Amino acid sequence: MQLKFEQLAGQLQKSLAKIYLLTGDEPWQMLEAADTVRAAAKQAGFTERETYFVDKSFDWQQLVMQQNHLSLFGSRRILELRMGSARPGKAGSEALRAFCAAPPEDVLLLIQASRLEARERQAAWVKTLDQSGVMVPMWPLDLRQTQQFIAERMRSLGLQADTESVSLLAEKVEGNLLAAVQEIEKLRLCFGAGAIDSQQLMAAVGDSARFNVFDLVDAALAGECGRSLRILEGLRQEGAEPVLVLWGLSREIRQLLALAEQAAAGTPAQQVLSTVRPAKRQGIVRQALRRHPRRQIGTLLRRCAQVDRAIKGQAMRQPWEALADLCQCLAGSGRPELSV
């Protein structure tokens, strides 16, 4: 059975499964979900806890032995497998299937793993765990979801913030819920329960935004010039390599050109956009195609070549300055014509 992160607490109040698989790359959600399962298990009498860290050399016979092991004092226990990005392989898959086929009455199995790609979600071990227990996939929140999370978290702590303050905090911690929780707690400690205005928030909150190249690409495609430049600056300050940023932008621009050529050849728009994955990105790709005719996308590609020369030291411009201009042009706020 699959549940969303926000559904987990409600399910645990109704019943406690014998097996939980938590997957995702959002650190706070993973910590919170694991703590919620542990608390419910403890309340149900699972007082012992054993933790194993899975890597390529992990001996899956340990899981088999635990399945047949009786606690010295007859107590119930939580068996945690922290897999990270490791995957069980053949031996691990067989051990997990055997456990799911006959889970011990006194053991609760809690597995934590990094995000599972679409192909990995079709693996036999994942399907077995999903069918035998509860699977909770967790995804990073977008800006709107981050705002909603912050508003709800602040209300739960007795803090009252207007829309402007919530939006400001969301922009500063976007992509990092753990930082959001810490900043909200800091606000509560500094000012106590009650109303919080934007000036108080600015005084107390540091910039904890955590971005990646894909955030930058999506912001530029959506025409959000200011946000894309802020993400670009965040990447620069975090020590990202300019060549990786250019790779993400140029890759997307090449894909835009391919889509524009299909549309110019008479392919229906819906059919052209159906190749964009994940499907939720089709809207921002449509926006970008409306802003940029095919010829202009070709000019954007030539701008990528300019940025590449700047990165290699073959042009007078600084790489991050050239990347900023490219982002502005892709977002529709700059002139795509080449500089001389």
Automatic annotation (TrEMBL):
<comment type="similarity">
    <text>Belongs to the DNA polymerase HolA subunit family.</text>
</comment>
<dbReference type="Pfam" id="PF14840">
    <property type="entry name" value="DNA_pol3_delt_C"/>
</dbReference>
<dbReference type="InterPro" id="IPR010372">
    <property type="entry name" value="DNA_pol3_delta_N"/>
</dbReference>
<dbReference type="GO" id="GO:0009360">
    <property type="term" value="C:DNA polymerase III complex"/>
</dbReference>
<protein>
    <recommendedName>
        <fullName>DNA polymerase III subunit delta</fullName>
        <ecNumber>2.7.7.7</ecNumber>
    </recommendedName>
</protein>
<dbReference type="GO" id="GO:0003677">
    <property type="term" value="F:DNA binding"/>
</dbReference>
<keyword id="KW-0548">Nucleotidyltransferase</keyword>
<feature type="domain" description="DNA polymerase III subunit delta C-terminal">
    <location>
        <begin position="214"/>
        <end position="330"/>
    </location>
</feature>
<dbReference type="InterPro" id="IPR032780">
    <property type="entry name" value="DNA_pol3_delt_C"/>
</dbReference>
<dbReference type="InterPro" id="IPR008921">
    <property type="entry name" value="DNA_pol3_clamp-load_cplx_C"/>
</dbReference>
<dbReference type="GO" id="GO:0006261">
    <property type="term" value="P:DNA-templated DNA replication"/>
</dbReference>
<feature type="domain" description="DNA polymerase III delta N-terminal">
    <location>
        <begin position="20"/>
        <end position="136"/>
    </location>
</feature>
<keyword id="KW-0239">DNA-directed DNA polymerase</keyword>
<keyword id="KW-0808">Transferase</keyword>
<dbReference type="GO" id="GO:0003887">
    <property type="term" value="F:DNA-directed DNA polymerase activity"/>
</dbReference>
<dbReference type="InterPro" id="IPR027417">
    <property type="entry name" value="P-loop_NTPase"/>
</dbReference>
<dbReference type="Pfam" id="PF06144">
    <property type="entry name" value="DNA_pol3_delta"/>
</dbReference>
<dbReference type="InterPro" id="IPR005790">
    <property type="entry name" value="DNA_polIII_delta"/>
</dbReference>
<keyword id="KW-0235">DNA replication</keyword>
